[in-house]
Amino acid sequence: xxxxxxxxxxxxxxxREILLHEEPVEQQQDxxxxxxxxxxxATQSNVSRDLRDIGAVRxxxxxxxPSWTQSEDSPFRKVVPFIRKMNAAGPHQLLVVTDxxxxxxxxxxxxDGQWADLVGTVSGHSSVLIxxxxxxxxxxxxxxxxxxxxxxxxxxxxEEREAEAAAEGExEGExEGxxx
Length: 180
Description:
The chain is of the alpha+beta class. The protein has helices at about 5-20, 30-35, 45-55, 105-110, 135-150, 155-180, and strands at about 55-60, 60-65, 85-90, 95-100, 120-125, 125-130.
């Protein structure tokens, strides 16, 4: 019997395949139904977390996987260890705080990646200001950086995962009690 982690990874791979190779998905419930057709047990909340964790975005009324989630050779991957935090800085900008002295290196990696949704970067000694044209692009860049940093990087997401693990533990305890 596959573990929960294996099941989750297989479900996420199925979501990737659906989003990359099938008709557009406009609603999460549609994705739940397509997963059920493939033999996966899924809820809307499972699908929502899976979409977030695989880096999927909703654009033009449908869910899609941006091309940058498929790239293993991004220059940005090399500078991820130097990033400490990231915050929105107004409606069109992000501030990335880096280790001391790493701001120019991180900015250069972003520029070398030629991210189409950027206007540019401004580097400081220990930070990078990322400029975008509008809120939509700001959100895409934010999601891209979160993807590269790994979902555990964000404290709020770690708390969500801990809550999910606790809920799963409670469910397992209830199932064990029901079996006895």
